Amino acid sequence: MALKSMRDTYCDTLLELAEKNDAIVVLNADLSSAVGTKRFEQRFPDRAFNVGVAEANMIGVAAGLSARGKIPFASTFAVFASRRTFDQFFISGNYARLNIKLVGSDPGIAAGYNGGTHMAFEDIGMMRSVPGIVVFEPCDNVSLKALVRQSAARKGCTYMRLHRKDGNIIYGEHEEFQLGKGKILRWGGDVTIFASGFIMVLQALKAAEMLEKSRVSATVIDMHTIKPIDKELILSQVEATNAVVTCENHQISGGLGSAVSEVLAEAGTGKLKRIGIQDEFGEVGNDAYLMNRFGFTAEKICGEIVEFLKGR
After folding, report:
1. For residue range 119-151, what is the model confidence (pLDDT) as tens digits?
2. Mean pLDDT score of the chain
3. Helix residue ranges, H only, 129-196
4. Is the pTM of this model over 0.85?
5. Cα(36)–Cα(41) distance, rounded to whole angstroms?
6. DSSP E strands, the chain
7. Which of 134, 246, 281, 289 could be stapled to 257 by a disulfide with Cβ–Cβ 3.0 to 4.6 Å?
8. Are the C-beta atoms of residues 9 and 145 closer than 8 Å to each other?
């Protein structure tokens, strides 16, 4: 049986929240089918707003709704949620101390056949620069549901990356999560892998299994929240293994790798290898091609880590 898609889990969670809280509203920029909120529109037609292909305006509407006490979840492709709405989200949402929950779907190579123009490799870097914001990326359906709930309960703006099409099973149904706190998925003594998101957490776990054949023991951590970053966990793992690797579906500059490197630099400790987009633009391709092209497969991650450890 096919897993429920991430977008279906996203919509289910919004529906559950909306049944209990009439402040929950949903906005889309003509992408309700793609992002998966069509069912919300059908259940709560007076609490769903399609602004058309006008992403910046969507944020303006969300700001107005937030100012009137609503909790707006505004969704579009990550490339538009970041590049096209940034000024409005920064000023009308964050500077104004409002409560907008911005959701960017199809981040990074998940844009697939939409190609390089639609591949947001820099959205986390942009959002991390906004004061007071929370930036996170769930890796499976369970973490998505839990973190969306926490986002709704938290006063203030958030940015979530949403892998919309497929589903993942990483966590058990009753696993607990906290925004700002990473989750240890497996323990090892030689290297710590910090990974984020639907694609890279799963590949990091597979890479850790491969590393065992080379007698390398790896800790794997789901760093679902990139801002605020879990400094305490990073430093405790550096003390345990010294060697740290980050894996992200994003430019290595500005995202998870940068956040971890800042913690290490300020503490003056640890050896770091960043795996992600290496200062490149995206391109058209299917999942298999793009995973291989940008070095996101478990095999390539494993190879990078082996070479990294040799050079220590």
Report:
1. 999 999 999 999 999 999 999 999 999 999 999
2. 96
3. 141-153
4. yes
5. 10
6. 24-28, 48-50, 71-77, 101-105, 134-136, 158-162, 183-186, 191-195, 218-222, 225-227, 243-251, 271-277
7. 246
8. yes
Query: What residues are labeled active site?
Result: 55
Rounded Cα gap, residues 154 and 101, in angstroms: 10
**Helix, strand, coil % (nearest 5) of the chain?**
45, 20, 35
Q: How many CB atoms lie within 10 A of CB 164?
A: 22
Tens-place pLDDT, residues 56-100: 999 999 999 999 999 999 999 999 999 999 999 999 999 999 999
Exposed, middle or buried, 86 (CB in 10 Å: 0-12/13-18/19+)?
middle
Structural domains in the chain plus CATH codes: 6-162 (3.40.50.970), 183-310 (3.40.50.920)
Contact between 135 and 120 (Cβ < 8 Å): no
Question: Is residue 1's pLDDT more than 60?
Answer: no
